[in-house]
Amino acid sequence: MVVLDYDKALQNDENFQSMLASTVQYSGHLRNVIESGVYIAAESSIVLPTDEALLEKVQALAEHYKSPALRYHVVIGIGGSNLGTKAIYDALYGYADVLESARMPKILFAETTSPDWLQMFGRLAQTLESPEQIIVSVISKSGGTSETLANFEIIVQTLAAHFGETAAILPRVVAITDEDSALWEQAGALGLQRLPLQLPVGGRYSVLSAVGLFPLATIGCDIVALRRGAAEMRTLCVSDDTSENLAAQSATVLAHYHSKAAVINDNFFFNPQLESLGKWYRQLMGESVGKQDSLSGETVHAGITPTVSLGSTDLHSVGQLYLGGPKDKITTFVYTQKHGDVAVPAASDRVLPELVPIISGKKASDIMQAIFDGTRLAYANAALPSMTVMLDTIDEYNLGAYLQFKMNEMMYLGQLMNVNSFDQPNVELYKIETKRILTGTNS
Ligand code: PA5
Fold this sequence. Notes:
Rossmann fold; five-stranded mixed β-sheet; 16 helices; 12 strands; binds 5-phosphoarabinonic acid
């Protein structure tokens, strides 16, 4: 499971304790949303881990596409429509894709509209022998995101040209979108496979909906364990016993240090395969608490800037800044207890035994643990605030637990910072301007 550790001195801090106690009322609201079992409230994403009808629908469609021939699942989507899927895929498989090039199927992510990536995809398409080797999911909550639809059209046309006709590829296309979107309607008219999103669930809270579950299920990820981890964490994270509610605790740590000028939350992952998990969290925090207006309508320009660092790699790039520069950060260290293991040879078997002799015979995991502990000690000695999240191991169950923990954390943090954790009015601004430029109506 997932364990949270933070500065025990906060237990005697009145400001911290009163903020933590204030989360209890909202926990009650979250429990009501879960008990309702319906998708009405803004917080409805917490219904997803135990929505059995959703699981059945996703599993049935994944089964429909199951084949030893499958090589690639192309996920076309951006922001909340792909970051969660990529986080889990990279943690379990994607980080090793270069080293395990023969392992299939793989997920390919078409995010921004990159002409270079699309050309490379065109070359990859030439290697396909039959449409059964590929699935294309077009994922967009609104159904109207320019990048996603441009990628979709180009990718489908590329595949249609390769296989000789559009009709050959359309049965391999799945649309995942809101049931009231134009994409839903037009995909239906074309006879495409479709999976609906649950309407009030926003993109950045949708990883446990069909958005994440379907692509992951088709490549062999254990989505049942993913949901189980999320469901078990959810129980803790809606508890009004704040001593077991990890989400309320970590949200309060963030809000507490934010009130003391920590305007950056650095998420420092010591397992490199978790980098995309950090990028998923970056959207979650950035869009949820980065707000112009407060819940009461005042202009506040609130926010904590989320950053992602990798240990120990980034200690050799920005470690100097973090340890010696401005004290404007609260750091969340993330690491796992269990690893596969390899060891540095004993001194007698080493090629360069006189260089850094203390590593001789040491396991790689012991070296990393020493770096992890050493980094946290250096932070503590420099009086830099931090908390630590330990994952038991990196698997579907623990990733599901982490995702749910962080989504609940963001709900509490919005309450503590007095902002709406569920909207993103300013993201729309660039979309409107982009469409204006493309239609030639910009001034
Ligand atoms: O959180 C959000 O709503 C956004 O980041 C969206 O996920 C992103 O803009 C993609 O939108 P859509 O899923 O509608 O294509």
